[in-house]
Amino acid sequence: MIALTHQLSQRIFRERRRPRLPNLATSSGFGDNITYIVGSAATQIGLSISVDPSPRPSPTLADVPCRTCDASLQLGRRLGPFILISRLGQGAQGDVWKAARQGLDGEIVALKILNPSLAKHQRRLAQFRREAERGARMAGPSLLQVFESGEVDGYLYMAMPFVEGVSLHEVIRSRRAYLSGDDVAQPHPLITAADDDYLAGMTRLMAHAARALEVVHTNRVVHRDIKPANILLDCNRPLAVYLCDLGLGRDLEVATIEQMRDGAGTPMYMSPERLLRAPADEIRSDVYSMGVTLFEALTLGRPFEDPEGVPISALSAFLAHAHPRPPRAVDPHIPQPLEAIILKAMARNPADRYRSAAELAAELDRWDAPANDERRRDFLPHPHLSMNTADAAELRNAPANRL
């Protein structure tokens, strides 16, 4: 099983796009364990896999009993003042549900619920409560503030505004597929936008995300898990973006050195100093992670060559000493001034990075400013532009500091 796991992990590294593995549970003879191990490893390093479905009919997400959440959480279940409507996602700590508040207004919310089995562990319990407390302190146009949290029947939850959105990770994956000629769903207009509109819109959205990170830092919290999967794009408002998931965050004023060097995070997006668990400027480490995310959002590729032949156990050390590819080596159409912004955010030496997320946002705004049109390509109409005219115009013409 160990040899098969290593072989499949190397295949994940080699395949640039979302690889499809055979049905591991049936073909390997190791049952669901092999699928779980390889899938978990891929998720931890910032990769995603999809497993070929078995011949039996696939149930809907709401019907699937997940490993991370109690099976009694089903559609229509009442949890305190909320009624569960549909499961939005599954994570290591539990599930996120779309829910409605009972009462006349029927407010729709996103409800994050801790897996009851994890509530037995004091460290996980305290981590979830701290996340809810931090989320309640965060207020900004690109942050989903926690407005209520509590415990009902052994379930800990936190409630946030519900957004009909899609993660930046999914937008990047779908755009790669679209540019390859594949048929893709279009939950967000940037997925099928003309190249110039994509570049302008994504640059502006990432500036908003950087400003949201600055709000987090202003509250003396570091995020520690900036990556495309934790950035949500609003499907109904092309310029709205939200920085999510403070589950790995730390309070700068109270966190110990050991807590800051615990190695938590997603290695593909972690700064070299965090990967090596060395002393770090935590603010600039978050800026580095935002830089890697910016690289991927604009180029649709990763800054590091696929680490073929590197065991997962040695991946952190490999990434800590690897040198990123220039963005223009991945996408030659990236303007040189924008490439310089990305590389400064990702500088190996923390002192060479932007001092704050606000500085990064301001630099992106300056590049995007109408007065600096000579620094970017003209945003000309594209004959095959599938983004509707209103959305394209909003992405091109809206002020850089407006959502």
TrEMBL record:
SMART domains linked to this entry: S_TKc
Q: What EC number(s) does this enzyme carry?
A: 2.7.11.1
The UniProt keyword set, sorted, is:
ATP-binding, Kinase, Nucleotide-binding, Transferase
Q: Which InterPro entries match?
A: Kinase-like_dom_sf, Prot_kinase_dom, Ser/Thr_kinase_AS
Q: Which GO terms describe its molecular function?
A: ATP binding; protein serine/threonine kinase activity
Please name the CDD domains in this protein's record. STKc_PknB_like
Which Pfam families does this entry report, sorted A to Z? Pkinase
User: Taxonomically, which superkingdom?
Assistant: Bacteria
Q: Which residue ranges does the record assign to the Protein kinase domain?
A: 82-385
Q: What is this protein called?
A: Serine/threonine-protein kinase PrkC
Write down the species: Paludisphaera borealis
Output the lineage of the source organism. Bacteria, Pseudomonadati, Planctomycetota, Planctomycetia, Isosphaerales
